[in-house]
Amino acid sequence: MKPVLILLLIVCIASTGCTPQTVAKDEHARGIISSIKASRDADFQGDEAEKLFFLLKDRKCDGLDKETLKEIIALLDVRHDGVRFWTARILGNIGPCARPAIPKLKQIVPQADCWPGGKTSASDIRETLKRFGEPSPPETICTGLGEGHPKAL
After folding, report:
1. Alpha helical stretches, state H, the chain
2. What is the pTM of this model?
């Protein structure tokens, strides 16, 4: 077993009572997060974010280490709407311990509202904010998008 994994397992069991399986999932999750951040290929990033969602789909606050949560929240800084879509869904599923993401979620809603295309992360970001008991931000009026853009004035 890798020394880092052993240390994570000791810390995790001592603090939250998680299992070796959850520690392995956290390490796998951090590997996926690293690959998303390292890549500049938008399709790859979106596919990896979707994989991360399914890996963590049933995870809640208990058993999720704080470092992994911080790294998940940091994915909101990736300027790819697919990554933000899946990340918002992950955070909404995790629960109340993901509330530190609220300021960033509120900050990126206007960008998501004005992202080109029909389906964007905006509705999922709003749903996650709602799960955290936050009011839904009003829809952004998008300007300067060019004639023919579906969200242009």
Report:
1. 3-16, 20-38, 42-56, 66-74, 81-94, 102-113, 122-131
2. 0.80
